[in-house]
Design brief:
This protein is an all-alpha fold. It is built from eight helices and no strands.
Length: 250
Amino acid sequence: MTQYLGGEQQLIVHLEAYTKDIYHPWPLHNRRLYLGHAFFLNVKKAVLQFVILKPLTAVAALILDKYKLYNEGSFDWCYGYLYVAIVNNVSITVSLYGLVYFYVGTQEWSMPFKPLAKFLCIKGVLFFSYWQYCFFTWLVNLGVFGNDIEKAQGSSLNIQNVLICVEILVAAVAMSKAFSADEFVGKEKGREGDFIVNVANVLDVSDIVQDARQTFGQHDNPSETDSLLKKVKMEEDKIWNESLSTNSQS
């Protein structure tokens, strides 16, 4: 979405120049959103922390399970599943709020690109399936599927598999509408490349690592933002002067 809006620097310039009052989503709707460089950095941090924490909690779950300390589906304080679930839920909530935060702050410029539909399709599949799993785990612990834990977990898993098969079909139809191929037809032709190279690019996480380092190591720098605004203003003045010169000659 950042690329749709002209890239990071252009987006920050728009945010700094935006004067309309925008407020946090409910329940913090009485607090004003201060758009700018700090706003963009906070959004990136909120999203990237999930990208970092999720693999770490997955590794922690594997290690705990090896030593019989994980006990998936159990909310017993003596096992690691509860703590991993808490960390994941907090991380997901912060990430989701960061994305809502970004949408609220940029919706006026991003409306032509149908950001809400894209947001709901991608994040809905990820987050809804996770919270659905947590909900069924809670039902198992309540004894809804019986008192035999192994059979209850099996029944819960079977129901979830059926639900996901139906949900993914609905999600596929929704994605075909939100991410229409018409937006990309005729663009960047001849860049298909080699299949293996494309797969390697998809699996390459070096860009994520670099982005995380820059984001968490960066602080809001007002002087840097001011210089960027001045640069854009100079470019706009140059275009305006060239336009006046052309009109006067004609």
